[in-house]
From TrEMBL:
Extent of the signal sequence: 1-27
Transmembrane segments: 67-85, 97-119, 125-142
Keywords: Membrane, Signal, Transmembrane, Transmembrane helix
Organism placement in taxonomy: Bacteria, Candidatus Eiseniibacteriota
Top-rank lineage group of the source organism: Bacteria
Organism field: Eiseniibacteriota bacterium
Name of this protein: Vitamin K epoxide reductase family protein
Length: 173
């Protein structure tokens, strides 16, 4: 397996694991009895109130009957079937179509994850990890595109072996 493919698989796994992390966080204040305290303007809260942070998870709000829940799950999991198609059938027409869909899906899912995470709250670790996982995935796609456009080697993807150079040490023969 080429280095590009390994990095894309790693990015897809990090994106899938980000599904279990908190997507957004929200802070509010409660009084000593646990009732929410309203804040007027941007002034400080009452002296006896304390700040409470609540976190929202993607799977926590999953409802099978709503389309937006399925879009959110698909935003995290789409690279796995796409990579499976590309690895199992590398020279097929389906694999080529899927490969050309990758950048649109990466940009779309990153935008969707951030927009869902930032509505009425602050994005949290899950949203940031998801977007961070999409960056190397997309960068490897761009690298493959440049490789294909230059026509290097006549193969579908660059194949850099993961082995040290001759002589056993890096940079010294």
């Amino acid at each position: 397996m080429a280095v590009n493919t390994r990095l894309k698989v790693l990015s897809a796994l990090v994106l899938a694991m980000a599904l279990a992390l908190p997507m957004s966080s929200c802070s509010y204040y409660v009084d000593p009895e646990g009732r929410p305290v309203g804040i007027l303007g941007s002034g400080p809260p009452q002296a006896d109130s304390r700040e409470v942070n609540s976190y929202s998870y993607a799977l926590e709000s999953f409802r099978p009957e709503t389309l937006s829940s399925w879009f959110l799950i698909a935003s995290f999991l789409w690279p796995i079937p796409m990579l499976a198609i590309q690895l199992l059938r590398p020279r097929s027409m389906l694999s080529r179509v899927v490969w050309w869909l990758d950048p649109a899906l990466a940009i779309g899912s990153g935008g969707y994850i951030i927009s869902v995470a930032s509505i009425f709250s602050r994005p949290a670790l899950g949203a940031y990890c998801a977007c961070a996982a999409l960056l190397p995935y997309t960068a490897m796609w761009v690298h493959e595109l440049v490789y294909r456009l230059r026509g290097l080697g006549g193969k579908d993807e660059p194949n850099y072996p993961l082995q040290p150079p001759a002589g056993g040490r890096l940079g010294v023969n």
